[in-house]
Sequence to fold (219 residues):
Amino acid sequence: MCLVCDYEQNNKSLEGISFLDCQECKVVKSIPYLENLQKLDCFGCTSLVHIPNLPNLLWLRLTGCVNLQRIPELSILEYLCCAKCVSLKTLPEFPKLQTLYCGGCTNLQTISELSTLQFLHCVKCVSLKTLPEFHQLHTLWCDDCTIQSLPNLPRLERLSCEGCKHLQSLPEFANLQKLSCANTPLQKISSLLCLKELLYRLYKSTKPIKSSKVTNIKV
Ligand SMILES: [Zn+2]
Fold:
């Protein structure tokens, strides 16, 4: 029995609690309002539909919460994993978010501008058409997405966009060091001035790369 079920059935107090573990609970539908909660783990809570606005939450895991319709705006949240939350259509603004895993959210249509985001894993988000500019993002995993273009990401160091069947060009990423782009129709990158820099950085050597076929670039 998870702590929320124990609280509902046995009136056990949750007051003052900072970590709530409800992993794999198939019956919990909503999380109570807990002012001091910092960490909430709802991995595999397939009945969960509601999370209140928890003012001190820093860490939130919602993997596989297939009935969750929305996530509230959480003002100091730093880590969010909502992978495979197939009912989510949007994500709100999170002013302090640094890490976001939302892979397999097949109905997710938009992600807000997240000014502090450093790491984004959004593979197989097949309803996502664009991404906003993330000024602090250093790592992006967006394999098997249907996005047609990527925004300017000035701090980007690692990009994996394998299997993005509609991605035909990349912006000039001044700091890109690692690029995985197998099975993409990238064409325009070969005409970009940054290509040599990109390849040199990619292989960390002074040897020029003979192949000009961008689909062969792989770290
Ligand atoms: Zn439970």
